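for the writeup, i need someone to sanity check this before i put it in the appendix. the sequnce is what the collaborator sent (i think, or maybe the updated version? ugh). structure was predicted straight from it, no edits. if anything looks off just tell me and ill rerun, i have time this weekend
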Amino acid sequence: MYKPRKKIFWFAIISRITVLSLQFVFNILCSDHYADAFRSPNDISESVSLYDNIVTLLFDGITRWDGQYFIHITKYGYTYENILAFYPLYPILIRIIAACIRKIFFSLNINSSIIIAATLINLICFVKSAIIFYDLSKVVLKNGNTAYRAAILYCVNPATIFFSAIYSESLFAYLTYYSMLKSINLDVYVAFPIGLSILTRSNGMVNIGFPIYFQLRKLYNNFVTKYDKFSFRTLCQFVFKVTTLKSICLLCNIVIISTAPFILLQVYNYIIFCVPRSNEIFIPQHILNHSIINNFELQGSSNIEWCHAMLPVAYSYVQNKYWNVGFLKYYAVKQIPNFILAVPILYIMITCIKEYIVEHSKYFCTLGFIERINDTAEVVKVKKYPAEMLVFIVHGLFMTIFCIFFVHIQVSTRLLCSASPLIYWYCASTISCTPHYNDERGYESIENIYSKWKVFLFTQKKYILKDKLILAYFLGYAIIGCFMFSNFLPWT
């Protein structure tokens, strides 16, 4: 019999094997669409062996779209200005693992080693993220069966192809869920995974809010416990206590350590692109030729505008210049199909947030700092959502608003699927799955708990309309996404 964590472990692995198999089949069956997208220039002097051709045949479908940027950064570093939109932790990890692979399998060239390294990193990070997500869900939802269903849904999420492609989604999801769990546990070292998540994706900066919230709530609870009434005097007495000062210092340390990688990254970007160098920068000829053909700005170019800004941060400038990212900039008639693609996840997020606010309106308005007082005369209603979801609701609300008004709307699916647990918690709470036992074994049927891959998604006999819609959305987007992405067709 497989316990829930073991079951999730195996199902996560099987889901990745399935995704990789689908992209291989779709890539073989259909010819690639010629997309007007960035492609890392090939070095014609690089040798290509039979093993390299096999790697390309098997995994070429996961190298599309942004995967080309990550491959380029891993190979050559930040050569072009537009590449600064992609953060360095994921390419650094790929480069380290790829170097080890080349030491062992010396017949593979750099490109093949990078593809294999990225695939391994994504596999490991995805499996670990699924297990961590289950642990996080158990703590927040206080229901093991719902947490299990949420983790299974995560394994077949609508953006699942991006968790196996050469994208940073799996790494970011792992670091984000890990940071969330450590924040709840008031772990003093939570700043490190948050700092790493910021080095992975720009929206990792939002994760700093989790330890800040839980630390402030701890301080507030300590204050309420010690003092009956609030006054300036009692506040001063509390603030200048040794334990309080230690907590404040810890909070400051968390913020400083978390943001330090981001600040260092901006300094690094400024140095390599804006500071004149006495010696000439060596740039491979094929990289130089590619920049001339595509009009890309190279390191040290005099045309880099953001270098002269009062606050020289490259990310927002590059996003605006090369992708036209900004407030309401994506609102155009020709983008209606992309808005339709994003409607399901935005609907789920908004519905979940709205239902929570209706259930816990007072708790939401006070941000959970004032505990709920239950009226004994009032009939206690069973809540769909635990009040402890508050900080995740606020986080999800911010991310949803940001997606609607600022980003390319179709990106909402993979952005929210890798950053917010709300989509999985909502669907896991909504889907009808009758427990087969009255104890902890109720998460699956007798047949399923002895199988590595059989789960309630595929074996439940009766489905209501909501179940069918959820399954159609998750599995439909997963399969169609594998087909579209692997053939260089536009997707989320």
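The first helix runs from residue 4 to 29. Confidence is low (pLDDT under 50) at residues 373-380.
thx in advance!!
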